[in-house]
Design a protein that fits this description.
It contains five helices and five strands. The chain has one domain (about 5-130): GIY-YIG endonuclease (3-Layer(aba) Sandwich). It is about 30% helix and about 25% strand. A five-stranded antiparallel β-sheet has the order 1-2-5-3-4.
């Protein structure tokens, strides 16, 4: 579908593959890597990271991530994936990106209520625009 590039706190660039959240190609990917539940940024330029995760198998982790519904409530309709085979590199990349992106769902107190950033009408309009 495309790509998204993020800069970590270190200045390193990370190139993610963009896919529709819940799409069949995502669930078929068994590589280890990082994933981000995201929505288009308010100004329409770039992406807003809602959740950042790390896994040894993208298909298993994405299917059981449990935050899809919360991400959708906040306008998330995309999952961005980056394959990183080496575990130590995945851990370092996750920390670098987490410090720079501060994903909304990861940066909240345990048990805090999720408040939608967009209305359902805005969410549906974004989905139609994307595709």
């Amino acid at each position: 579908m495309g790509e998204a590039i993020f800069r970590g706190q270190s200045g390193r660039l990370y190139r993610f593959r963009v896919e529709v959240l819940g799409g069949s190609t995502v669930s078929e990917r068994t590589e280890p890597g990082l994933f981000i539940f995201a929505r288009p940024a308010r100004a329409g330029l770039g992406w807003k990271a809602l959740h950042l995760g790390r896994t040894g198998n993208l298909s298993l982790r994405l299917d059981s991530a449990g935050l899809w519904d919360e991400a959708r409530t906040m306008g998330g309709a995309f999952v961005l994936t980056l394959c990183i085979p080496d575990r130590a590199e995945r851990i370092a990349a996750e920390a670098d990106l987490r410090a720079a992106l501060r994903p909304v769902l990861d940066d909240r107190p345990q048990g805090a209520e999720v408040v939608p950033l967009v209305t359902m009408a805005e969410h549906e309009a974004l989905r139609r625009q994307q595709g």
